[in-house]
Amino acid sequence: MNTIKSAIDFSLARNSAGQLQFTSGDGLIYEDVNPVRAFPISAPDEGISLISKEGHELAWIPDLAALPAAIKALISAVLAQREFMPVILRIIQVSSFATPSTWDVETDKGNTQLTLKAEDQIWRLKNNRLLITDKNGVNFTINSIEQLDRHSRKLLDRFL
Amino acid sequence: MLNVVNSATVNSKILPPNPSSKLPNVWQSNVWQSTVQAHLDDAEEPQAWLEINLDEQLHFTEHLLLITNRRLVYFGSDGTISGGRNTLLREYIYRSGLKLRQHDHAGIYSLELFDGESRLDHWRYTLTSDTSSTRFIKQFEQQCASYVSGKPVPMEATEPCPKCRYPLTAEQDECPQCSSETDTPPSTWTLFRLWRFAKPYQWQLLAGFLLMLASTAATLVPPYLTIPLMDKVLIPYQNGVPIDTGLVTLLLGGLLGSALLAWGLGWSKTYILALVSERIGADLRTITYDHLLKLSLEYFGGKRTGDLMARIGSESDRICVFLSLHLLDFATDVLMIIMTAAILVSINPELALVTLLPLPFIAWMIHIVRDKLRTGFEKIDRVWSEVSNVLADTIPGIRVVKAFAQEARESTRFREANQHNLAVNDRINKIWSLFSPSVTLLTEIGLLLVWAFGIWQISKNEISVGILTAFLAYISRFYTRLDSMSRIVSVTQKAASGAKRIFDILDHVSSVPEPSNPVHLDKVSGKIEIRSAGFRYGNRTVIKNLNLTIAPGEMIGLVGHSGSGKSTLVNLMCRFYDVSTGAISLDGVNIRSLPISEYRRNIGLVLQEPFLFFGSIAENIAYGKPDATRAEIIEAARAAHAHEFILRLPHGYDSLVGERGHGLSGGERQRISIARALLIDPRILILDEATASVDTETEKEIQKALDNLVHGRTTIAIAHRLSTLHKANSLVVMDRGQIVEVGSHDELMASEGAYYRLYQAQARNVDTDLDDVVSNDAVANKQTSA
User: Fold this and answer.
1) Most-buried pick from A52, B150, B256, B685 (CB within 10 A)?
2) Which residues of chain A have a Cβ shorter than 8 Å from any chain B Cβ?
3) ipTM metric
4) Virtual CA dihedral for B517, B522, B523, B524, nearest 10 degrees?
5) Gap from B641 CA to chain A (nearest CA, Å)
6) Torsion of CA B150, B155, B160, B165, to 10 degrees
7) Would you tell me the crossing angle of helices B349-356 and B328-347 to the nearest 10 degrees?
8) Cα–Cα distance measured from residue B97 to residue B574, given in angstroms and rounded to the nearest whole number
9) What is the per-residue pLDDT across B237-282, written as a single tens digit (0 to 9) for each?
10) Which of B630, B644, B653 sits opposite A57 (nearest CB)?
11) CB-based contacts of B642, cutoff 8 Å, min separation 6
12) What's this model's pTM, rounded to 2 decimal places?
């Protein structure tokens, strides 16, 4: 296993291909480095790992906030591009209460449709959060059931 | 010096029981008391005894083998008197060279007395009181040696059980080894035991009962009001008297009022009692599940998952429905019948008598059917768990089923179980279906009787038309309730058999009991000592007289063919089972006297088949320490070489792993389970074939993870592949529940014993069974002790 460098012991840059370029403390250069969140759902900003193309960990960042602003911005930009987890704000309509069921939803990324294959594709997380995986593997979240409007809650309740 | 005493002459010497006897207290109620007393000298003291329950022809008898400070005595009947327990059959005065040997096969034990190499006597018995015979032999040896040498028997630190010499603690009056669990047959009153769960809700129950009384009384008002309605309003009107509007309003108002009252009271009563019964059901489930979790692995080994699931799930629900619905209805009905009967008698005793006449018949019928249905419903329950057992077997093993293309066979198996279910139900339905129509028929006949007798009484001017109407109104309610009351028969039976099956679990005492006087270890260094441990599984002796000492921080490799007792030894060390004889101690303290969960917190266990629970990977790693921080979890995962593959998963540590970790490879699951063991930082580590189910490449990865884990901990590793044990300080070779060799790899190779041959076989990659290797081993009896 690679020894884990402390957070400041490396530098990051974007190469011409738009990939992240990682330069380790001892001057080794890695192309196409990927930042990965260790706890994308329960603690997104805590624990980010920089993974080489070969799948080995190059650096471990315990806390994103503690990084120099430039590096932080680079990582956040890459993560934002790759991460797609729309937050459902409102459930407009569902096709049926038996699965598979197609939902018309309003998300923070706009209105869309998702197909729920089975009730067990809805996972309860802590603090009333829900993670809904649709037929195509896209993950939607509901941040808090209470914050939904009455109509959405009523529809959702039939699946919980 | 062999003395065979003629039994006929001793028969006459029976003495009455002597209260001031030197026999221990436990003898007071013993059937052997008088016999033993009659045959002992004044200076003789019984030291230990063993009940021999088979004779030479293996017929069941009651004989007794007794050790005194002078001789071994065999009591029993010589066959001339049936059931005689008063004969001294044989006795052997101690002398040097006497030896007792014991061995067992298929549940029958034999004890042989040798003088040198010649057998003097032998006895056979089944093991009713677990393992007393080992201590019996030890006691025999001590007494014999002491008698021969003249030196006193070494004193034991604690007062042992007078029968089997099992060391008793101060609080134990009864020897846990000797006093067997009594298996009482299930009583039909099992349902009353539910009171234990109902007690916390007694005030709600009382309130519910009072409401029930009131609401039942309220429902009985309307028919009573029909009397004045008929006699004072309708019949006078037919005879030309105008209707008294005020009276009619009053009466109709009364009808409405009582109906409303009955509605309100009935609602609150049903609500309160349903609430309470639901809570009783929930308590029952939780307590049963909690109790089940505390039971030893032995219990789970003997039960099937489907059956246990049915007991906790559907059986407790059935009891709950019974309490909230059926019992409630039944109680209401009984109250109604009693109240109605009282009202009817107060109006007209003669007509009341005729009305109530069919009641005893119906009660009698209910009783008859009850008897017939009782066995039937128990059978249905058993068949039902058979059905769910098929499911519980097949669904987890679906890969095997599909791989061998046995879907049709499994389908047949299910259909057969279902057919059986159907057949049993058919049989019981035959009786059951006759029941309701018969009750209805009796109801009709009862109504007919009332009509006939009522008309006759009216013709004699003994009662008014209004009274007859009231009676008819009362009894039509009354009889329809009887019909529904008859349902109580089946539901009570079902609930009672459900309760019995739940109490079966609750009554089961864990064979791994919590210590009554727990000892707490502040800091565990990890020294494990196993002293003459023995363990029986069912009627098979798995571990025999095993001695082993493991120093703190030492790594021991357990080697041996499958079935040699390695896994059992590990289970004993984890205290999943308790040793039958001997003791296992941690840092010099018997593990039986440590609180179980406190003891197990010191043990990290990595199994061949890692079990992951439904939840995220982080939760699975933190299973043994739920309050672990994320940093700790990551640290453990890193040490277990799991960090990088976890990061490759779409949700990292938040990725959900399904039941049994579907979606992860065997090696990945194993590394998660190693991280789990690492996180609790145990002093003792047990690796049970941790790398057996993965490929060589993964094994290397896991081996690296294990090396991190092993560091500085007392480790017991089981492995088939001897190469994985290169780090072990010493290797322990086991065969048939015994240790045959101990030493480092080099020592064992040098001695060219069982290990040498095993190693050679593996090096040549020849599939040699250790069994063959050990059996022709000259040093097979070499045993280790500290």
Assistant:
1) B685
2) 1, 4, 36-43, 46-47, 49, 51, 55-57, 60, 62, 123
3) 0.80
4) 10
5) 8
6) -40
7) 150
8) 40
9) 888 888 888 888 999 999 999 999 999 998 998 899 888 888 888 8
10) B644
11) B621, B668, B671, B672, B674, B675, B705
12) 0.64
Which chain B residues contact residue A3 at CB under 8 A? Answer: none
Question: In angstroms, what CA-CA distances link B501 with B494, B512, B639?
Answer: 11, 22, 46
Please give the Cα distance from B300 to B298 (Å, whole number). Answer: 6
Mutate to test the interface with B, among A1, A3, A63 (most CBs of B within 10 A): A1
As a whole number, mean pLDDT of residues B70-84 equals 70
Q: How far apart are CA B530 and CA B464, in angstroms?
A: 92
For each successive 10 residues of chain A (160 residues), what is the average pLDDT?
52 81 83 85 83 84 83 84 83 85 87 84 80 83 87 85
- Please answer yes or no on whether A38 and B653 come within 8 Å at the CB atom: yes
* C-alpha distance from A113 to closest chain B C-alpha (Å): 22
Chain B: closest CA distance from residue A69 (Å): 23
Question: Residue B371 above 80 pLDDT?
Answer: no
For residue A102, which phi and psi values (nearest 5 degrees)? -100, 125
Asked if A39 and B638 come within 8 Å (Cβ–Cβ), the reply is no
Rounded to an integer, the average pLDDT of B43-49 is 78
What are the tokens at B607?
């199994």
Domains B2-149 and B190-507 alike in fold: no
Output the CA–CA distances (angstroms, integers) from residue B459 to B452, B475, B758, in the order listed: 11, 21, 107
> Domain spans of chain B?
2-149, 190-507
Q: Residue B377: pLDDT band by 50, 70, 90 thresholds?
A: confident
* E strands present in A64-126: 88-94, 101-107, 110-116, 122-124
Interface of B with A in 624-643 (CB under 8 A): 630-631, 634, 638, 641, 643
For chain B, counts of helices (H) and of strands (E): 28, 20
**Do the Cβ atoms of B474 and B337 come closer than 8 Å?**
no
pLDDT tops 50 at residue B2: no
Partner-chain contact A1 B630, CB within 8 Å: no
CATH of domain B2-149: 2.30.29.30
A42–B618: do the CB atoms touch at under 8 Å? yes
Q: Which of B617, B629, B649, B654 to mutate to test the interface with A (most CBs of A within 10 A)?
A: B654
Please state, in angstroms and rounded to a whole number, the distance separating the CA atoms of residues A26 and B548: 51
CATH top class, domain B190-507: mainly alpha
Q: According to the model, what pLDDT value does residue B170 have?
A: 44
Residue in B with minimal Cα distance to A82: B650
pLDDT of residue A3: 40
| Closest Cβ–Cβ partner in A4, A37, A123 for B652 | A37
- Residue B90 has φ and ψ, to the nearest 5°, of -145, 155
pLDDT 10s digits, B194-221: 888 888 888 988 998 899 889 988 888 8
Task: Look up residue B26 and give its DSSP letter.
Answer: G
Cβ neighbours around B224 below 10 Å, total: 16
Nearest partner of A64 among A25, A86, A38, judged by Cα: A38
Across the range B128-152, mean pLDDT stands at 75
